[in-house]
Amino acid sequence: MTRRRRWTWAGLLVVAAVAWLPLNKAVEGPKLLVLSRTHAIVTADLLSVLLVLVAVGLVLPRRR
Fold first, then answer.
1. What is the dihedral of CA 37, 41, 42, 43, to 10 degrees?
2. What DSSP designation does 43 have?
3. Exposed/middle/buried for 51, CB within 10 Å: 0-12, 13-18, 19+?
4. Which contiguous run of DSSP H or E holds residue 6?
């Protein structure tokens, strides 16, 4: 995969991760970390974390 294509995929994954956060209300699941009375990190938010980690893995320099 070319460098440009990796950056494109990484960008798309980050956009998907950000878009998922307000859309996951119906499937949130249990609270993992309560941040305040009205905000918490829930299991559905972990998908966004995973997408960002994959995006970072795509753009990190590779060893040869």
1. -170
2. G
3. buried
4. helix 3-23
How far apart, in whole angstroms, are the C-alpha atoms of residue 38 and residue 13? 27
Please, are residues 10 and 57 in contact by the beta-carbon 8 Å criterion? no
Can you tell me whether residue 40 is helix, strand or coil? strand
Question: What pLDDT shows up at residue 1?
Answer: 79
CB burial of residue 55 (10 Å; 0-12, 13-18, 19+): buried
Which structure tokens are listed for 32? 């993992």
DSSP 12-30: HHHHHHHHHHHHGGGG--S
pLDDT for the residue 47: 94
User: In order along the chain (64 residues), what is the average pLDDT of each group of 10 residues?
Assistant: 92 96 89 92 93 95 77
